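User: Structure with protoporphyrin IX containing FE, C-alpha coordinates only please.
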Amino acid sequence: MKRKVHATAALLALLFLTAFWISTVIAELFLSETAVAQVKHGIAYALLGFIPVMIATGASGFAMGGKSMQPLIAAKRRRMPFIGGIGLLILAPAAIFLSMRAQAGLFDSIFYGVQALELVAGAVNVALISLNFRDGLRLRYRKHLPGQ
Ligand code: HEM
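Assistant:
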Protein backbone atom coordinates (compact mmCIF):
# COMPACT_ATOMS: atom_id res chain seq x y z
CA MET A 1 0.00 0.00 0.00
CA LYS A 2 2.73 2.45 1.05
CA ARG A 3 4.70 1.50 -2.05
CA LYS A 4 1.70 2.18 -4.31
CA VAL A 5 1.08 5.58 -2.68
CA HIS A 6 4.79 6.37 -3.01
CA ALA A 7 5.03 5.32 -6.67
CA THR A 8 1.87 7.23 -7.67
CA ALA A 9 2.76 10.39 -5.72
CA ALA A 10 6.34 10.31 -7.07
CA LEU A 11 5.10 10.08 -10.66
CA LEU A 12 2.59 12.90 -10.12
CA ALA A 13 5.27 15.10 -8.49
CA LEU A 14 7.57 14.70 -11.46
CA LEU A 15 4.73 15.33 -13.94
CA PHE A 16 3.54 18.46 -12.11
CA LEU A 17 6.99 20.02 -11.95
CA THR A 18 7.85 19.18 -15.57
CA ALA A 19 4.49 20.59 -16.72
CA PHE A 20 5.10 23.84 -14.76
CA TRP A 21 8.52 24.22 -16.34
CA ILE A 22 7.57 23.39 -19.93
CA SER A 23 4.37 25.48 -19.89
CA THR A 24 6.34 28.47 -18.51
CA VAL A 25 9.04 28.21 -21.19
CA ILE A 26 6.52 27.76 -24.03
CA ALA A 27 4.40 30.70 -22.84
CA GLU A 28 7.44 32.97 -22.40
CA LEU A 29 8.97 32.09 -25.76
CA PHE A 30 5.95 31.83 -28.04
CA LEU A 31 2.79 33.25 -26.44
CA SER A 32 1.28 36.61 -25.49
CA GLU A 33 1.50 38.32 -22.09
CA THR A 34 -2.14 37.36 -21.52
CA ALA A 35 -1.25 33.70 -22.03
CA VAL A 36 1.78 34.06 -19.73
CA ALA A 37 -0.52 35.51 -17.06
CA GLN A 38 -2.94 32.57 -17.51
CA VAL A 39 -0.13 30.04 -17.21
CA LYS A 40 1.23 31.76 -14.06
CA HIS A 41 -2.28 31.80 -12.58
CA GLY A 42 -2.73 28.09 -13.37
CA ILE A 43 0.62 27.19 -11.80
CA ALA A 44 -0.17 29.14 -8.60
CA TYR A 45 -3.44 27.17 -8.23
CA ALA A 46 -1.80 23.86 -9.16
CA LEU A 47 0.44 24.29 -6.07
CA LEU A 48 -2.63 23.17 -4.12
CA GLY A 49 -2.22 19.78 -5.79
CA PHE A 50 1.56 19.74 -6.05
CA ILE A 51 2.40 20.42 -2.38
CA PRO A 52 0.27 17.53 -0.94
CA VAL A 53 1.68 15.20 -3.62
CA MET A 54 5.25 16.15 -2.61
CA ILE A 55 4.41 15.63 1.08
CA ALA A 56 2.89 12.21 0.27
CA THR A 57 6.00 11.23 -1.75
CA GLY A 58 8.39 12.22 1.03
CA ALA A 59 6.33 10.83 3.92
CA SER A 60 5.73 7.44 2.24
CA GLY A 61 9.40 7.29 1.20
CA PHE A 62 10.68 8.01 4.71
CA ALA A 63 8.19 5.50 6.15
CA MET A 64 9.39 2.75 3.77
CA GLY A 65 13.07 3.61 4.12
CA GLY A 66 13.03 3.68 7.94
CA LYS A 67 16.55 3.86 9.34
CA SER A 68 18.03 1.86 6.48
CA MET A 69 21.61 2.78 5.54
CA GLN A 70 21.29 1.09 2.12
CA PRO A 71 23.23 3.49 -0.16
CA LEU A 72 20.36 4.16 -2.61
CA ILE A 73 17.93 4.86 0.25
CA ALA A 74 20.52 7.04 2.04
CA ALA A 75 21.09 9.03 -1.19
CA LYS A 76 17.32 9.54 -1.61
CA ARG A 77 17.05 10.68 2.01
CA ARG A 78 19.97 13.14 1.59
CA ARG A 79 18.35 14.80 -1.45
CA MET A 80 15.03 15.48 0.30
CA PRO A 81 16.03 18.61 2.30
CA PHE A 82 17.23 20.21 -0.95
CA ILE A 83 14.06 19.21 -2.84
CA GLY A 84 11.83 20.47 -0.02
CA GLY A 85 13.88 23.62 0.62
CA ILE A 86 13.94 24.65 -3.04
CA GLY A 87 10.21 23.92 -3.33
CA LEU A 88 9.10 25.78 -0.22
CA LEU A 89 11.60 28.64 -0.16
CA ILE A 90 11.88 29.41 -3.89
CA LEU A 91 9.34 27.68 -6.15
CA ALA A 92 6.11 28.19 -4.17
CA PRO A 93 6.73 31.88 -3.25
CA ALA A 94 7.96 32.58 -6.82
CA ALA A 95 4.85 30.99 -8.36
CA ILE A 96 2.54 33.14 -6.21
CA PHE A 97 4.60 36.31 -6.75
CA LEU A 98 4.77 35.81 -10.53
CA SER A 99 1.06 35.09 -10.74
CA MET A 100 0.17 38.30 -8.83
CA ARG A 101 2.63 40.35 -10.87
CA ALA A 102 1.34 38.95 -14.17
CA GLN A 103 -2.32 39.54 -13.18
CA ALA A 104 -1.35 43.19 -12.56
CA GLY A 105 0.33 43.35 -16.00
CA LEU A 106 3.73 44.08 -14.43
CA PHE A 107 6.14 42.36 -16.80
CA ASP A 108 9.19 44.31 -15.66
CA SER A 109 12.77 43.40 -14.79
CA ILE A 110 11.69 42.17 -11.33
CA PHE A 111 9.21 39.79 -12.99
CA TYR A 112 11.84 38.43 -15.37
CA GLY A 113 14.49 38.18 -12.64
CA VAL A 114 12.20 36.09 -10.45
CA GLN A 115 11.07 34.13 -13.52
CA ALA A 116 14.69 33.26 -14.36
CA LEU A 117 15.34 32.19 -10.74
CA GLU A 118 12.19 30.05 -10.79
CA LEU A 119 13.25 28.30 -14.01
CA VAL A 120 16.75 27.52 -12.68
CA ALA A 121 15.42 26.32 -9.30
CA GLY A 122 12.70 24.31 -11.09
CA ALA A 123 15.30 22.62 -13.33
CA VAL A 124 17.43 21.72 -10.28
CA ASN A 125 14.37 20.21 -8.57
CA VAL A 126 13.35 18.25 -11.68
CA ALA A 127 16.91 16.84 -11.75
CA LEU A 128 16.90 15.93 -8.02
CA ILE A 129 13.43 14.38 -8.18
CA SER A 130 14.44 12.44 -11.31
CA LEU A 131 17.48 11.06 -9.44
CA ASN A 132 15.20 9.94 -6.59
CA PHE A 133 12.86 8.39 -9.15
CA ARG A 134 15.72 6.52 -10.82
CA ASP A 135 17.04 5.24 -7.47
CA GLY A 136 13.50 4.20 -6.51
CA LEU A 137 13.20 2.10 -9.66
CA ARG A 138 16.63 0.59 -8.98
CA LEU A 139 15.53 -0.35 -5.45
CA ARG A 140 12.34 -1.89 -6.76
CA TYR A 141 13.81 -3.96 -9.56
CA ARG A 142 17.01 -4.93 -7.74
CA LYS A 143 14.84 -7.02 -5.40
CA HIS A 144 13.72 -9.13 -8.35
CA LEU A 145 17.24 -9.87 -9.60
CA PRO A 146 18.54 -13.39 -8.89
CA GLY A 147 20.76 -13.54 -5.79
CA GLN A 148 19.37 -10.29 -4.25
C1 HEM B 1 11.10 13.21 -4.68
C2 HEM B 1 11.20 12.17 -3.89
C3 HEM B 1 11.09 10.74 -4.32
C4 HEM B 1 10.75 10.19 -5.54
C5 HEM B 1 10.42 10.91 -6.85
C6 HEM B 1 10.77 8.75 -5.37
C7 HEM B 1 10.48 7.82 -6.37
C8 HEM B 1 10.40 6.45 -6.18
C9 HEM B 1 9.96 5.50 -7.19
C10 HEM B 1 9.49 5.83 -8.59
C11 HEM B 1 10.03 4.27 -6.63
C12 HEM B 1 9.65 2.92 -7.30
C13 HEM B 1 8.22 2.60 -6.91
C14 HEM B 1 7.68 1.34 -7.56
O1 HEM B 1 7.64 1.25 -8.77
O2 HEM B 1 7.30 0.48 -6.83
C15 HEM B 1 10.53 4.42 -5.28
C16 HEM B 1 10.76 3.39 -4.40
C17 HEM B 1 11.28 3.55 -3.15
N1 HEM B 1 11.55 4.75 -2.50
FE1 HEM B 1 11.32 6.62 -3.27
N2 HEM B 1 11.12 8.47 -4.07
C18 HEM B 1 11.31 9.66 -3.41
C19 HEM B 1 11.67 9.83 -2.07
C20 HEM B 1 12.03 8.79 -1.25
C21 HEM B 1 12.56 8.94 0.09
C22 HEM B 1 12.82 10.28 0.81
C23 HEM B 1 12.80 7.69 0.58
C24 HEM B 1 13.36 7.26 1.91
C25 HEM B 1 14.27 7.89 2.56
C26 HEM B 1 12.38 6.74 -0.44
C27 HEM B 1 12.44 5.38 -0.31
C28 HEM B 1 12.04 4.46 -1.26
C29 HEM B 1 12.12 3.01 -1.09
C30 HEM B 1 12.62 2.28 0.15
C31 HEM B 1 11.64 2.45 -2.28
C32 HEM B 1 11.56 0.96 -2.63
C33 HEM B 1 10.15 0.43 -2.46
C34 HEM B 1 10.13 -1.05 -2.73
O3 HEM B 1 10.12 -1.48 -3.88
O4 HEM B 1 10.14 -1.77 -1.76
N3 HEM B 1 11.92 7.44 -1.54
N4 HEM B 1 10.74 5.76 -5.03
